[in-house]
Amino acid sequence: MGRGRPEPTARAHPAPPRPWTVVVAGTLSLDDLTTPSGRALEEPGGSAAYSALAVAPLAPVRVVAAVGADGARARAVLDGPGIDGTDVVVRPGSTYRWQARHDPSTGGVADERQQLGVYAGWIPHLSPASRAAPVCLVGSMAPACQLAVLAQTTARLVVVDTMEDFIATEPALVRRCLAAADVICLNLRELRRLGGPATEATARSLLGIGRTRAVVVKGGADGVRLLTAQGDLELPAAPVGVVADPTGAGDALAGGFCGALALRGTVALDAYPDALAVGLRAAARAVSAFGLRGLVAPAAARPAGG
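Request: output the structure for the sequence above.
Response:
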């Protein structure tokens, strides 16, 4: 009897590379939010929360933040899959509070107040794992806190967001933070606060200072503009039905951007446009509901690619 053909040997396919880890440093807060859609009191939020929830569907994320003894609800938003809250500390005092009344006619904040609480005098400490994360997103918080994070990270890609209040009160410290970033994220009002008109030339003047090689100017419903030494590119905002609450849109944008680059394991400039498109979709999810609700929707409801 003849021998049958040998069964083909299954070929082993190399496993896809694991996404890089992103460390997100910023605030965890309890917010008082007023928009045309209503009002929410003691709503969990903060730059670290919005950014981390935007990163988590794409790449592992470690959070560096602080809460007070009253911050259990603010801390609980990090209990989802893919988020490591080891570096979140509980300090004596009150959790950071942020109050805002959003003005739909301008797309900005008509009235904004903050109570730093435990963030007053806090010096962030990064664990060895957080220091070694290849991507570091430093969200909006006091520039002294941002500088402490920047002094500890060894990330290949550093992204820094800022806040208009701090540009007004601590401009020198803010500029030190910006010079330590590969990518700066800021909106038009923040750009004006840095000096001069909110123009492409003003944004471009930030390039080449320190390690900065890209500036992302956030325009709300008008999308974003990416500026690099190679030129600039405008990307439209992702479609959204009703804007329920614009809080955290910029933080989600930065988180989605960092998560998309970490997923691909790259810091190449030519990957930035696609990564920003992912960030814009995260921002659209964030504004579709009050607080963090738009970012904690079931995974099946999320748009493809983040």
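The radius of gyration is 20 Å.
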